[in-house]
Structure formats: C-alpha cells, structure tokens
Amino acid sequence: MLRQPLLDKLSALRLTGFCQALMEQREMAHYGELAFEDRLGLLVDREWTRRENNRHQRLLKAARFHQPACIEDLDLSPARGLDRRLVLELADSQWVRHHLNAIVLGPTGAGKTYLACALGQAACRQRLTVRYVRTSRLLDELSHAQADGSYPSLLHTLARIDLLVLDDWMRDPLTAKQTRDLLEVLDDRYGQRSTLLAGQVPVAEWHSRFPDPTLADAILDRLVHNAYRLALKGESQRKSRSPLAMVNT
Questions:
Q1: What is the fold, at CATH topology level, of the domain defined by 64-236?
Q2: Residue 196 class from Cβ within 10 Å (0-12 exposed, 13-18 middle, 19+ buried)?
Q3: Where in the chain are the domains?
Q4: Which of 28, 43, 47, 198 is surrounded by the fewest CB atoms within 10 Å?
C-alpha cells in the first residue's frame, strides 16, 4: 500500500494525474517488470497529459466560441470554394504566431462562423488565447466599459488576446464613435496580435460603410493588407441540414 503522507504531498503539489497513475501502477503487477525510469516516465506523461487537457479546456471556455467547431469536421469539398491547402496551413496557427490576420467571407449560412470557430479552436490547441465575439456585441462592451470606467482595462485585455475573432463584420452600420472604438482596439493589436474577420460584405465595400473616410483608411490599413482570405460558396448550410429539407427531398 502507498503511504498516505506520500499521496497527501502529491495532492498538495497538485500532481493529480501523477498520483492516479502511481496508484494504478501499484495495483497492476506488470508495471513491476519495467525499469524505474520507464515507470517514472509513464507517471510524468500522465501528469503532463492531464495538465495539457485542462489548459485546452480553459482556453476553449475563455474563447466563448459560438459553435463547437473543429478543423476535422470541416467540409472542404470543391463546391464550397475552399482551398484545402490554405485551410490546413491556417490550421497550424503559424499565421497567429506571426501576427497576421484572416478574412472569411461568404453568403448567409455558408458556414463562415463555423470556419472561424474551427480556426480559433485550432489556435487553442496550439496554446494560443482566443476570443470569439460578434462585432455588434464587442461594440456594446466597449460602450458600456466607457460608461462604467473600465474602458482602459477592457482595451488592455483585448490587446493581449492572441487571436480575436470578430463575427458578422460590417453587418450593421457604424457610428463615428463605434469606428473610433474599433480603431483603438485594432491599433493596439496591429503587428502584435492577430484578428480574424467573418462576414458576408465584400472587402471592396467596407470603406464606404464607415462614416469617416480617414478612420476607414486607418482601420482597413491595419486589417486587409496582411490578411489571408477565404471565400465560401454554395447554398446555406442551415438549409441543407434542416430536417424539413430531408422530408421534402
């Protein structure tokens, strides 16, 4: 039997995986045939795996993804217009480490949000911090933060996130104040962090949707020129996956 003081010390050190694996080794005779270094290696591997899984779950929770998407479940058929090589390249998240951006475009229901969340989840696997948010809700957060005095703190938090995913980009008209708020966020991130934009408005129409041309130039200069672009095609995924569609087929 393992001595309780040893188990207590392992627990105090938060070596839960190590402790569980050690008890399993004591209960299974075949572990006794292994060399000390091999048994120790198995214990360390269990603890390392536990900590990696916990870290990944914390990153996923903090990201607040709209959908539980992952790269493995993406439909990369030619009909969707996706470049398989580019998607897999982006999935390794080196573009995030190099502080580049990405733009996901496509019609309503084409799967922009799913793709954006899948790339964000891939970044979490690489131990990168991610935050998913609809653009309108981010603007509301910024406005409320200005009202309660937490605006500088919110800007600081956003500036430290490795990948900021802004969904429904340019969907709604922007006010001059909202444009300035976006510029504050994006200026802090330019060259330091990555931003992924997902929306259905073509890039060529973005400039005209800002109320101030000068601010539009500043924002687009920080987003577009160093961004990968993915353009989805095809019918709405919601329509094709609807139970009613299958009934009417």
A1: Rossmann fold (3.40.50)
A2: buried
A3: 4-59, 64-236
A4: 28
